[in-house]
Amino acid sequence: MPNGPPWQLLLPLLWSWGPLLRRAETGSVGQTAGELYQRWERYRRECQETLEAVDPPAGLACNGSFDMYVCWDYAAPNATARASCPWYLPWHSHVATGFVLRHCGSDGQWGPWRDHSQCEDPEKNGAFQDQRLILERLQVMYTVGYSVSLATLLLALLILSFFRRLRCTRNYIHINLFTSFMLRAAAILTRDRLLPPPGPYPGDQAPVLWKPALAACRTAQIVTQYCVGANYTWLLVEGVYLHSLLVLVGGSEGGHFRCYVFLGWGAPALFVIPWVIVRYLYENTQCWERNEVKAIWWIIRTPILVTISINFLIFIRILGILVSKLRTRQMRCPDYRLRLARSTLTLVPLLGVHEVVFAPVTEEQARGALRFAKLGFEIFLSSFQGFLVGVVYCFINKEVGRDPAAARALWWPRRERRARGRL
C-alpha cells in the first residue's frame, strides 16, 4: 500500500463510501466523519503490518491486500475467500459475525466483485431489501407481459403475412410495427439474462462482470436500445400514416411506404450510434445499464420523447376529426359517445399515448413512491402493449374476419377445442 499524504488516502474512501460518511456526519453511532476516518486509517495500517509479517504462500495464490474496505489474506486459486466485517464500521457491533466474500480466480487474480451484504447497516439494509423486492416483482410482471406479447404478435404476424387478401400498405405497416414489438420484447428478455440482478445495491456497489460477459451484456444493451427506438419510430409511422389518410385527401396510400420503412428502421440508428460512441468515451462502466451521466442518457431519451409528443398531437388531431365526422352524421348521443370511446381506446395502444402520462416526469424528479408509480405504470402498459395491438389490429380486425381463410385459421383451434370438449 503506498504511503502518501492523508488526503490522498481519504479520496478513495470518500468515493467508495460517500453514503457511509454522510450518515456518520449526522451522528450515526456517535461517530463523526473525522473519527470514522481515523478508525479506517488505523485498520489500514494494521492490515499492512499483518500482511508484511506473513510469508507469501508457495505456488499460485491471490495476493493479500487491502481493497479500501476490508483486509484480505492470501487465498488459494478457485476458492471463495472470506474476511470478517471491518471493525471500523460504525455499526460493527450489529454485524460482527458477518463476512465479506470474494472469489480468487484460477489464474491467481482476485475477482472484481466483493459481496459485503453481510456487513451492511441493518437499518438501511431493510429499505434496500424492500426496494429490491419491488423491482423484482416489476421484473416478473414485464417478463410475463413481454412473453405474452411475443407469442400473440408472432401469430398475428403469420396471419397478416400469409394471406394475400390482407396484403396492403396499411397491413404492411402493421407487420413492421408487430416486428418492432417482437424485437423489443426479445431484446429486453435476452438482456435481462445477461444483466446483474436488479438493484438497488447498498453503497451503490453494483456487481462487476467479467470481460466476456461484459462484452455480451453491452452488445445486448445496444441492441435493446435500437429495438426500443425502432418500436417508438414505428408507432410514429402508424400515427403519421393514419393522419395522412384522414387529412391528405387524394394521397397515395402506398406512395410513401419506402420513406416509412427508412424512418422506422433507419431513424433509431441516427441517435443510437452517437449514444454508443459517447457512452464508450465518457461513461464506459459496467453493462451500460446505469445512467449516471444524464446528459449522455438524453441522447437516447430526447428522440423518444419527441416521437411520444408528436404521436400525442396526432392523437388529439385524429380525435378532433372523428368528433367532427360523427357530429355531421347526426348520430344519437349514446351512439356518438360509444363510437368515440371505442375509437379512442383503439388508438391508445396503436400510438402509445399512455406514455404521455409520466413523460414530463424525468428520472431525476422521480423519487420514492412517485418513482415506483412511474415504473409500474409504464412497465405494465409497455410490456402488454404488443399484446393489445396484436389483438385489436389482427384477431378482432373486421378485415381479417372477412377473409375466409384467415378466419378459419384464426378460429379453427377454438372450434376444435369445443368439439373435443363435447366428446
TrEMBL record:
Transmembrane residue ranges: 140-160, 257-278, 298-319, 340-359, 379-396
Location(s), subcellular: Cell membrane
Cited InterPro entries: GPCR_2, GPCR_2-like_7TM, GPCR_2_extracell_dom_sf, GPCR_2_extracellular_dom, GPCR_2_GIP_rcpt, GPCR_2_secretin-like, GPCR_2_secretin-like_CS
Signal peptide, first to last residue: 1-24
Coiled coil feature spans: none
Pfam families in alphabetical order: 7tm_2, HRM
This protein's record includes keyword Disulfide bond: yes
Keyword terms of this UniProt record: Cell membrane, Disulfide bond, G-protein coupled receptor, Glycoprotein, Membrane, Receptor, Signal, Transducer, Transmembrane, Transmembrane helix
SMART domains hit by this protein: HormR
Location of the G-protein coupled receptors family 2 profile domain: 46-123, 138-397
Cellular component, GO annotation: plasma membrane
GO molecular function (one): G protein-coupled peptide receptor activity
Matches recorded under PROSITE patterns: G_PROTEIN_RECEP_F2_1, G_PROTEIN_RECEP_F2_2, G_PROTEIN_RECEP_F2_3, G_PROTEIN_RECEP_F2_4
GO terms for biological process, alphabetical: adenylate cyclase-modulating G protein-coupled receptor signaling pathway; cell surface receptor signaling pathway; regulation of insulin secretion
Record's bilayer topology term: Multi-pass membrane protein
Subunit structure: May form homodimers and heterodimers with GLP1R.
Family as reported in the entry's similarity comment: Belongs to the G-protein coupled receptor 2 family.
Function comment: This is a receptor for GIP. The activity of this receptor is mediated by G proteins which activate adenylyl cyclase.
Protein name, UniProt field: Gastric inhibitory polypeptide receptor
Organism phylogeny: Eukaryota, Metazoa, Chordata, Craniata, Vertebrata
